[in-house]
């Protein structure tokens, strides 16, 4: 059993046995974050679908385990068995959530899965396949949900769909404890992540490389292994589904719903998040939003007070302006109180707002400019995030802010400036930069375009590493 595992990566039908974009991304993440060790859990369907590994595992992979959900070789021969009443009552409740996909499986039901499925003297796989109690559950579900359809179709669909849950419960119980669990999709790997989260109470991250449930719906709509007893005119996903397809789709919908509910963080691929927030048909000369945003912790090193004072000067010249302070506030309560007192004393109540933690992807399109007034930084990710959204930036002369906004290499600098650099602790310089930035629409648009190009050209990989490094560190830190 491995000890001191940092990250347990949950991988379904991908790395290291299948080549492709997701596998390349996983390999890249592991290699790019050598300070963390990784334990890999591969989940496949049938063993004969995969051959040898197609990637050489990086040195910071401490181990890999391979699991196949459709590997039935170890099952005992069929024989008559009754099945235990209480475990099957819990099983029936679990199954009801897959028929009526309105609410995710609760903590209690996930714990019931861990405590009962594939457990001796509870509800073994053989009980699911061969017991009288399981037969009664199957008959009850058929009469409730599929009585007008083929019983043979329903029987095999029932077995094929719900059998893997027993495998997932067994895998979750046997996994070594990690500091963070991270799945690269919803589906089976994501559901395993939810079970691990329930079992260990450790952080669980979900990265969406595609919308798994939607992709499975498309697969099922086109599957030629499912008999289609409806006319071609009813082939749309929005029409009434043939029974087998409907059951499969509800199953994957519930997996996704449960995974989303239990994940501590959900991250979309960078490329999806970095699309500029411009609607089709918007005017070419868009007016900058009259909102200045500072995204960061409310602590002295971020010099929030300089931002507040600069907003007083800027609002004197442009009364419609607002300043939003976006970030966690609990780290230094005394400093937060001082900042709020300063807002009150400068008569900025309602104009400078403390928004707390927000979804950066959702908040950025509402900002006209992003500001950092920090007295110390390294390579601030928030500038890169703003640039990826096409938002010009203002930053103090600290860390790599100048290189980020003005460029590093000759080719990078030739792109132009995507923001302005100001001195530390200078409210007047900050206010002047805000006025310069927001009063020239053409320049504002140009800087936004340059920032977007710079990120796409030079920073995509660095942003990804920084983002996941931060997520992993946060997940590990709370346990220290």
Structure description:
The two termini are 22 Å apart. Helix 1 links the parallel strand 1 (5-12) and strand 2. The radius of gyration is 27 Å and the shape is elongated. The protein is α/β, with parallel strands linked by helices. The chain has 2 domains: 1-268, Rossmann fold (3-Layer(aba) Sandwich), CATH 3.40.50; 291-459, 3-Layer(aba) Sandwich (Rossmann fold). The longest helix is centred in the last third of the chain and has 37 residues, at 441-477. It contains 18 helices and 12 strands. It has helices at 21-32, 85-99, 107-116, 125-130, 132-145, 151-174, 187-200, 212-222, 243-262, 270-273, 304-317, 333-345, 360-363, 381-388, 401-406, 410-414, 427-438, 441-477; strands at 5-12, 38-44, 61-68, 178-183, 204-208, 265-268, 291-295, 322-326, 352-356, 369-372, 393-396, 419-422.
Outline, from the CA principal axes? elongated
Task: Enumerate how many helices there are, as a single number.
Answer: 18
Q: What is the CATH top level name of the largest domain?
A: Alpha Beta
Going by CATH, the architecture of the largest domain would be 3-Layer(aba) Sandwich
Q: Quote the average pLDDT.
A: 86
Largest sheet features: 6 strands, parallel
> Whole-number radius of gyration?
27 Å
Write down how many β-strands occur, each being a DSSP E stretch of 2 or more residues. Answer: 12
SSE order in H/E notation? EHEEHHHHHEHEHHEHEHEHEHEHEHHEHH
- In oligomeric terms, what are we looking at? single chain
What tags apply to this protein structure?
18 helices, elongated, 2 domains, Rossmann fold, single chain, 480 residues, 14% strand, six-stranded parallel beta sheet, alpha/beta
